[in-house]
Design brief:
Layout: H1 4-55, E1 73-77, E2 82-85, E3 89-93, E4 135-136, E5 142-150, E6 153-165, E7 171-179, H2 181-233, H3 248-297, H4 304-328, E8 336-339, H5 340-349, E9 358-361, E10 369-372, H6 374-391, E11 396-402, E12 408-414, H7 440-443, H8 448-458, E13 462-467, E14 473-479
Parallel strand pairs: 9-11
Antiparallel strand pairs: 1-2, 1-7, 3-5, 4-6, 5-6, 6-7, 8-10, 11-12, 12-14, 13-14
Helix pairs in contact: 1-2, 3-4, 4-8, 5-6, 6-8
Length: 483
Amino acid sequence: MRSVRARAALGATAVVALALVGAGIAVLLVLRAHLTGQAGLQAEVVAREVAGQLALGVPYDGLETRDEEDHPVQVTDDEGRVVAVSKDLQAISGTGTDRVVPVRPSATAGGSSDSSDDSDDGDGDDDSAAPGRGETDPDDADFSNGTATVDGERADYRFASVRATTPAGETLTVHAGAPLAAEQQAVGTVRDSMLTGLPVLLLVVAGVTWLVTRRALRPVEGIRREMAAITASEDLGRRVPEPDSRDEIARLARTTNETLAALESSVERQRRFVADASHELRSPIASLRTQLEVAAAHPELLDLPGAVADTVRLQTLAADLLLLARLDAGERPGGTRVDLGRLVREEVARRAGDRIAVTVSVPEGERFEVTGSRGQLARVLGNLLDNAERHARGAVVVGVRAADRGGVVVRVDDDGAGVPPEQRERIFERFVRLDDARSRDDGGAGLGLAIARDVAVRHGGTLTVGEAREGGACFELRLPGAG
């Protein structure tokens, strides 16, 4: 089942089916309990009526019950013997004994079963005073389910058991039943209705879920078709349709278009990078080849320093391109603790013979440690110093200080012409040189600042440019401190 619509319809149908089955079972149980309670109440009323007659001394064969066909009665004594039953009761179960033949059919509830005509002793006094009155048990009746056969018809009954005491002190138990036919019929009717309506309702739920899901997923199918067309045509300028709704699918379409735009921009940057790299590599390679060809034909004309310079430039450009490729591939910086103050002093010491003297401003005795790649951070400082020396008139100042929240700031100032505000972000793009009038040998390939910012970002920091106090450019590298 690979269709989302089918899975959604099946899932919704299953959930509704479980809910309806659970609710139906609960309804049937409540209905059965209610109707069984009603039958038990009827049976208790009949049982108490018979118990009241026994307490008044009514003979067993004189007991009266209402509607004997619907309310069978069985009376037992303490020993479980049957002493009275209702008329036409042929069989019974669920009352503790299944006997339906009284053991003393002629006994009375008030005294002995033997009657005597010698009550008059001759002196005119009546010594057989009227018997006293018994009592019924006021406690709640006991209930049970069973069956009874009355006048040849067998049915289920709810029996209520009530205890009574006759005027003679005999304790009896009255078992009276109420039919459960109405309860069974009502429960059966409700159950049949549920079984009949449940499949129809589930079909309706499945159909509605299918249609609603189909309508909801229609924009997704449009997005899929457009993405397939974009993949086939390799035209990243196309965009998927965005529905007018504000739901998840509309957000998916917008996110997809944003992803396509980012992908298009990335591919375009990659194309420009390849084109610029090819162009930058072509110049030193062509120059070096020309010098070698001339040297091959005329060894006395070999410009050895120029060949070495072109080779160095080619090597530097190749190293820059490889570093950018590693950064673009997501290479993580190392976890070495680096003291930026010491690293700055080392980088400045290597430039002792440069055209512009570099002034170092690093507090003595303090450590400014960060975590990262020592080689990459040295590359950032070298690129910033190269850029400052290339544009400075006569002074370059580099300083290190602590920043807020444990960070470290490296600042490189020069007294050159500075960077116009509108160009301060553009200079960090690859192969961008604001001094295009200069020769490529003097101006570089335009990768130094791009590499510096990428490395700073990879280390969790930032690299920005502003205006120095001397009027030149001020590059500020901010990195989080170690720990």
